[in-house]
């Protein structure tokens, strides 16, 4: 009885941690990819003929942030099932 | 009886976590896509003839942030059912 | 009985720590790689003929941040299994 209550409390705490963790990872991705996207827009306005180069580099570097952020969200999902 | 009370309290905590988590993920998307959108508007104003390039790049990079933020919100929704 | 309760509580706290840790690591990667990407975009716009050099250096230095952030996330995952 006591044990079941404690286990339920643990599940609740884990769920709260997972929600906050996933949300904070989204803030990280927003800050990082936002900076890159803003700079890329200004760069295209400055040198419209370099659009192809800017686009490819923008996607490469944004993918690095995306990778870490998505992996962090998946770690948070894992906490539901372990 | 005691157990049912504790379980209800846990459900409440999970709901609070899910709501705050979804809201914080929305802040992340707001910061990131806001930066990109602002820079894109200024870029179009600076080089109106590059509007097509700027629009397509703006959508690509905003979609990356959108992906992480939406996934975080879905993780928060999941916490209701687990 | 008492021991089992304590162990369960520890598991829950470990899960919360793992989620927060992974999310904060993603913020770190977002801030760092975001700065690098933004500066690289502006650099390409300033000197479009140096695109290759800028890209290779951008990837090298972003990989350093990526390495630490991914390792931190993996350490957080490890806390589930130990």
From TrEMBL, chains A, B, C:
Keywords on record: ATP synthesis, Cell membrane, CF(0), Hydrogen ion transport, Ion transport, Lipid-binding, Membrane, Transmembrane, Transmembrane helix, Transport
Location relative to the cell: Cell membrane; Membrane
InterPro entries: ATP_synth_csu_bac/chlpt, ATP_synth_F0_csu, ATP_synth_F0_csu_DDCD_BS, ATP_synth_F0_csu_sf, ATPase_proteolipid_c-like_dom, F/V-ATP_Csub_sf
Domain V-ATPase proteolipid subunit C-like span(s) in chain numbering: 16-78
Transmembrane segments: 12-38, 59-81
Site (Reversibly protonated during proton transport): 66
Protein topology in the membrane: Multi-pass membrane protein
PROSITE patterns: ATPASE_C
Family, similarity comment: Belongs to the ATPase C chain family.
Function recorded in the entry: Key component of the F(0) channel; it plays a direct role in translocation across the membrane. A homomeric c-ring of between 10-14 subunits forms the central stalk rotor element with the F(1) delta and epsilon subunits.
HAMAP family membership: ATP_synth_c_bact (MF_01396)
Name by which UniProt lists this protein: ATP synthase subunit c
Organism: Heminiphilus faecis
Taxonomic lineage from the root: Bacteria, Pseudomonadati, Bacteroidota, Bacteroidia, Bacteroidales
